[in-house]
Amino acid sequence: MKEWQHIEEMEAILKEHQEKVGELQELLTFLQRQQPEYQQLLAYYGSEKWYEDLAEDEAGNLPDSLARGVLSEDEIYNLIGDYHEVSVQMLQLVTDLLTH
To answer: pTM of the predicted model, to two decimals?
Structure first.
C-alpha cells in the first residue's frame, strides 16, 4: 500500500460528499420554494372541489388525455407519507451530524 493511498481515499470521500451536499442543497431549496404549491395540493386533496372532479372523472366527463393521478387517493396519500418519512430521516441525520 502506498503511504499516500489514504490521502487518495479521503480525497475521493471529500469530492463525493461535496457533490452530494451540493445536490441536497439544491433539492432543499426547491422544496422550500415549492411549499406553497405543496400546501395547495394538500388543501385540494379531499376538498369539495376534489370530490367534484372525481365525480366528473367517474362519469367519464374528463378527456382521456388528461393526467388524473391527483384524483387517486393513493398518489397524494403516498406523497404525504413519503414527505413524512424523508422528514424523519432528515431529523435523524441532522441530530447525528450535530452531535458528532
So the answer is: 0.81
